[in-house]
Design brief:
single chain, about 350 residues, alpha/beta, eight-stranded parallel β-sheet, 11 helices, globular, binds adenosine-2'-5'-diphosphate
Length: about 350
């Protein structure tokens, strides 16, 4: 499929398009150019909460469908299972390493300069790779684990064990050293706020290439997008379909919003495809997670149609700002809001 029509598409975002899509016109997925000239496929497979057998099957199927971008993290504890599949595909010559785009993330217990090499080296071993395409600081807050496997340390009251001395400047220098050493092609951040980004941009030698945050139709992160845009930091949306949806929540899930379902019916697409396409047309990379073959396949088939300016406006108008936020962290990491680098304002 030629993607020339996509490359020539006028910017539809409220924030003007900055990045050039790659020229690979025969490819099945568009890519975003990072500040350093490297290219990131706009659709990747998310793997959060995917257990070993489930993720092995999903990655295998995704590779067969044409996915080449995969997102994981030390915290997800599934790197080894994912690595089994990469190892097999690469050694059998079914895919070339350079055609894959692999992201993993430094856990909060690694958020000290002296820990970064150790955690990335462990991730690489599990993933059966000699480098990752993108290494992210998973969360701006540091925690203190009993050992390297204590990924979500809790005290006797169930509160998260915080490292109150988290220092982004020395931590970022250690991230930059991973690029120097060839263990990461690009480095980036996840769940940072605007002030934290501005600070990194002041002291960095190698800038963040990408910022991964919650973005979906109800929570479009317009302010944060403007800051990233200003610094040529591309963005990647986690939870692009609006998961997790809490049963009994006041509002309907994003996937069931009438604007989304009626656009889907009119265009002959699924609600998920509409939501993903909306973000892609805003130059946001998406990493929907699915372990279901049919859904995994449909999430990748988002390059054969285009939303009009009017469709985009309808979806833009679904934004609820901070009220649309689904991931709050302070429920799963009790007491995290007491850390000086906690990125979100409480109450939301
Ligand atoms: P499943 O793995 O059973 O497909 P997000 O990426 O926004 O976190 O969303 C992931 C959740 O949405 C998972 O529960 C996943 O379930 C579900 N999901 C993934 N793709 C689709 C789709 N195309 N339509 C509906 N639900 C989907």
């Amino acid at each position: 499929m030629r993607l020339a029509s996509l490359s020539n598409a006028p910017a539809q975002s409220v924030i003007p398009s900055l990045w050039h899509r790659a020229e690979g016109t025969m490819e099945r997925v568009a890519k975003l150019k990072l500040f350093n000239g490297r290219e990131m496929p706009m659709v990747g497979l998310g793997t959060w909460q995917a257990k070993d057998d489930e993720v092995r099957q999903a990655v295998q199927l995704a590779l067969e469908c044409g996915y080449r971008h995969f997102d994981t993290a030390t915290l997800y504890q599934n790197e080894e299972a994912i690595g089994d599949v990469f190892g097999k595909w690469i050694s059998e010559g079914k895919v070339a390493r350079e055609d894959l785009f692999i992201t993993t993330k430094l856990p909060t217990i690694g958020n000290r300069a002296e820990n970064v090499t150790k955690f990335l080296t462990t991730s690489l071993k599990k993933l059966q790779l000699s480098y990752v395409d993108l290494y992210l600081i998973h969360f701006p807050v540091g925690c203190i684990g009993k050992d390297e496997n204590d990924l979500q340390p809790r005290d006797s009251e169930g509160k998260v064990v915080l490292d109150m001395d988290t220092d982004h400047e020395s931590l970022w220098k250690a991230m930059e050293e991973q690029v120097d050493a060839g263990r990461a092609k690009s480095i980036g951040i996840s769940n940072f706020n605007s002030a934290q980004i501005e600070r990194i941009m002041k002291f960095c030698r190698i800038q963040p290439a990408n910022h991964q945050v919650e973005i979906h139709a109800f929570h479009q992160q317009k302010e944060l997008r403007a800051v990233c845009h200003k610094h040529n930091i591309t963005m990647c949306a986690y939870g692009p379909l609006g998961a997790p949806y809490k049963e009994g929540a006041k509002q309907k899930p994003v996937l069931k919003h009438p604007v989304v379902t009626s656009l889907a019916a009119r265009l002959g697409k699924t609600p998920a495809q509409i939501l993903l396409r909306h973000l892609i047309q805003l130059d946001i990379v998406v990493i929907p997670k699915s372990s279901n073959p049919e859904r995994l396949k449909q999430n990748f088939e988002v390059f054969d149609f285009k939303l009009s300016d009017a469709d985009m406006r309808e979806l833009d108008n679904l934004d609820q700002g901070k009220d649309g936020k689904l991931f709050i962290f302070s429920d799963s990491m009790i007491g995290v809001e007491n850390h000086p680098e906690f990125p979100f304002k409480i109450p939301f």
